Amino acid sequence: MSESKIAITVVVPVKNEEANLGKCLSRLSRFSEVIVVDSSSTDRTPAIANEYGANIVNFSWDGKYPKKRNWLLLNVTLRNEWVLFLDADEFVDAAFCDAVDRATQDPVQCGFWLNYDNFFLGRRLRFGVPQRKLALFRVGKALYEQIDEDHWSGLDMEVHEHPIVDGPVGEIAARIEHKDDRGIIKFVDRHRDYAVWEAHRIVRLRSSGIALNKMTRRQRLKYGNLSRWWYPWVYFLFTYFLKFGFLDGSVGLQYAFYKTWYFQTIRLLIFEGASGHGYRGRPS
Predict the structure, then answer these.
(1) Using one digit for the tens of pLDDT, what is the confidence trace for 17-57?
(2) What three-state secondary structure class fits 56?
């Protein structure tokens, strides 16, 4: 007797992800629906999605709300009650599939935090600040934060926006492997784009007076303090020493360094007025 499929729709947003997509999709055969949302890739990404039998939906962003994940939730009818968002460089295993299958049988929960094992320079990071995302929830019970933006960057997908879930949220302990095989240049390019976006968001938060109390605890800590001179260095001390990042050896040091560079870059962009727009005051 064939194994019944897990009643979860997996959505993989992509753009030019031929290096990672095949491995990602090869782990998703147990799910009843897999959708690849493609931003007009120019490499083999669409062909790879076809090879693995995924449904392909093309997305073209106009620079405003909604971005890719919210657009899909608002415009595409999904087969299942639950949706799981995975990036192309995130890989699940049998233990994770079993865990989400069990967890989504709970009639009370409306979403779940997921835990990740990060890789950097080809090595697993066992220590440092753990990565977690709220990326599994009931369809119709959550949307990502609506942030009014107008061409802040070329990021057409919700990256730092947090899903707002209407109902109880649990956590799944089984871990997802987060391993991007595209090299350090792609890592730096991606985080440069993220830094520009985050600087713009902080400028907008300050100018609009949006209350931080509607955000998660981690968001409140970050957005309340990111422009302060000490934040990048406290992050380095916290992740490298207090969270034992030094036990990951040279890779742990390099990762902590790059994350510190990332937060310092955001701070300097705020100081410059997010590349010439909005807040121009000196950071505290």
Answers:
(1) 999 999 999 999 999 999 999 999 999 999 999 999 999 99
(2) strand
